[in-house]
Amino acid sequence: MFSGLKRYPERGEKTLQAWDAADELILEHLSGIDHKGRKILIVNDTFGALSAALEDNGVSAYTDSYLSYKAIGLNTHGKIRIHTQLCDLEGPYDFVVMRVPKNMSFFEDILCRLSRHLQPHTKLICGYMIKHQADASFELLNRIIGQTTTSLARKKARLIFASYERTPTPSPYPLEVRIATFAKPFTNHSNVFSREKLDIGTRYLLEHLPKGTYPRVLDLGCGNGIIGIALQKLNPKSHLVFCDESQMAIESAKANYASYFPALAAHAEFHWTHSFEGQAAESVDLVVCNPPFHQGNAIGDFTAREMFQDAHRCLAKGGLLRVIGNTHLPYPQMLKQIFGNAQRVASGPKFAITDSVK
Which one of 2, 11, 73, 105 has the fewest CB atoms closer than 10 angstroms to its CB? Predict the structure, then answer.
């Protein structure tokens, strides 16, 4: 069933599969249901295992993740339609097959917006790995969709079942969040990191932004765009570039940048991509980055390393990369391997800021 499936990007780790036990459980359950010719939506298919197995049924998929988007396309050879914004869903659906996200705000948003595209008794089949599951997922399904039941656990995975019995529920997202020292509120979509308040790492980075003249500035892994906005305030003549792996982050950054700099909004660049994949070499003069130390449920430094490698590639000679990370993370060693230099410019009890120059 899963033969030939690939992760995206392909890193060569043989231990990392493009599926897990929750995918297996979902597909085993569907094999006992007559779903031929029914309208099926797949939500949060991590690496395309569900989409590849069901592609012959005329399914569509939704994901906020660029890596998931690329993996689904790779494993289905582009045969299914992939929605990247919840507003583009086209129901009514007969079945919704979903991997439950860790982020319960995102899950709530998905369920609320899905509720407009469901009909009475539409079946939701939600898979999850038990160690990653939040109790709030049951409450959200019960409130927005209908009463839930569960499967037996197997290989540390379980399914939640629900039939649509409610009425459409308005989504409370995006949020408007006010942040001290910023005059205007920030628009934060549901899958943006630290969507309800300013996280302490970003707060610390805002206190230690580089000063100087930088013609082209990249906010790498931009989230809601607050770092790039602060850099634009420091350097009014800079050309700002934002990129993130989350489509919701890009939409948030676009809205927030336009709010603060309406005259410049048409000229700023926004890229939904992995790291700074596919962008021109030696094209920016400053990169500021707060890397994630996980990809979905997988924890590791592989994403940070790829971001640092892309920063090195895209920086002009003499360009600066400024990175913030938890003090225990080996970012200085990684940066020395890639750039040949790394200098700690600030540190506190939890975070350290490191510069590298190309």
Answer: 11
- 49 and 95 in a single domain? The answer is yes
pLDDT for residue 55 = 78
SS3 labels along the chain: CCCCCCCCCCCCCCCCCCCCHHHHHHHHHHHCCCCCCCCEEEECCCCCHHHHHHHHHCCEEECCEHHHHHHHHHHHCCCCEEECCHHHCCCCEEEEEEECCCCHHHHHHHHHHHHHHEEEEEEEEEEEEHHHCCCHHHHHHHHHCCCEEECCCECCEEEEEEECCCCCCCCCCCEEECCCCCCCCEEECCCCCCCCCCCHHHHHHHCCCCCCCCCEEEEECCCCCHHHHHHHHHCCCCEEEEEECEHHHHHHHHHHHHHHCCCCCCCCEEEECCCCCCCCCCCEEEEEECCCCEECCEECCHHHHHHHHHHHHHEEEEEEEEEEEECCCCHHHHHHHHHCCCEEEEECCCEEEEEEEC
Among the three residues 163, 196, 227, which one is the final residue of a domain in this structure? 163
Residues 44, 113, single domain; the answer is yes
> Residue 297's domain spans which residues?
175-357
What is the per-residue pLDDT across 278-314, written as a single tens digit (0 to 9) for each? 899 999 999 999 998 655 444 457 889 999 999 999 9
Supply the pLDDT for residue 15: 57
Q: Give how many domains the chain has, as a whole number.
A: 2
Q: Are residues 253 and 310 in the same domain?
A: yes
For residue 183, pLDDT over 80 is answered with yes
* pTM, entire model: 0.94
Q: Which of 163, 194, 225 is the last residue of a domain?
A: 163
Q: What is the mean pLDDT of residues 217-231?
A: 97
- The answer to the question of residue 6 being in a domain is no
> Do 204 and 337 reside in the same domain of the chain?
yes
Above pLDDT 70, what percent of the chain?
96
